[in-house]
């Protein structure tokens, strides 16, 4: 499987679907063995990222090619892979509606039937720590057991899946659910189904 090609393609999709702004967010895939992961590079425009720019790292976050710099949030990805062998791909976005709930530190309750199969149910907010820190990477772990998606306080969204297609779909559905819940809150009295 060409992991680099998948990450380049999905990076463009992240931008085109409005799930990230600028160079924010990042994507990764668990590689061919237990000590290999592929992740988008640090601070590079998604439209300019080529396959050779994707960074292959080991489980400590060290790049196989020392001239490459992985996303500054690589610890978040590695901690999730370490704790959850069932997840093989991670999509981290700063998508606006979902991130607005993360800023208000409010969960997105189960309001749409799609949330159950695609997100695992209600989407909760993990506590705030500095971006890229060891603490923030550990903070999301308990929230990804029953759901494959959680919000990161004052930061963004993390979605996990068995593959990139599935993780990306979760990133789209959590943004959709956040948007609809936001509108419903404005109309008033949203009903929760779970
Ligand atoms: Zn981020």
What does this structure look like?
With 194 residues, the protein is of the alpha+beta class. The chain has one domain: L-fuculose-1-phosphate Aldolase (3-Layer(aba) Sandwich). The protein has six helices and seven strands, in the order H-E-E-E-H-E-H-H-E-H-E-E-H. The termini are far apart. The model has no long low-confidence stretch (mean pLDDT 97). It binds zinc ion. The site of zinc ion has 7 residues, from loops.
Strand and helix layout:
Elements (H helix, E strand, L loop, with lengths): L2 H14 L9 E5 L6 E3 L15 E3 L16 H10 L5 E5 L2 H9 L10 H5 L5 E2 L7 H6 L9 E4 L3 E6 L2 H24 L7
Parallel strand pairs: 5-6
Antiparallel strand pairs: 1-2, 1-4, 2-3, 4-7, 6-7
Helix pairs in contact: 3-6
Bound molecules: zinc ion.
Brief digest:
The protein has helices at residues 3-16, 74-83, 96-104, 115-119, 134-139, 164-187, and strands at residues 26-30, 37-39, 55-57, 89-93, 125-126, 149-152, 156-161. With 194 residues, it is α+β, with helices and mostly antiparallel strands. The chain starts with a helix and ends in a 7-residue tail after the last helix.
Q: Main sheet: which strands, in order across? A: 3-2-1-4-7-6-5
How many DSSP-defined strands? Answer: 7
CATH architecture: 3-Layer(aba) Sandwich
Given the structure, what is the number of helices? 6
Structural class: alpha+beta
From the 3D structure, determine the CATH topology: L-fuculose-1-phosphate Aldolase
The biggest sheet, with number of strands, parallel, antiparallel or mixed sense and barrel status, is: 7 strands, mixed
Helicity level = 25-40%
Secondary-structure element series = HEEEHEHHEHEEH
Question: What global shape is seen?
Answer: globular
Average pLDDT: 97
What is the radius of gyration computed over CA atoms, rounded to a whole number of angstroms?
A: 16 Å
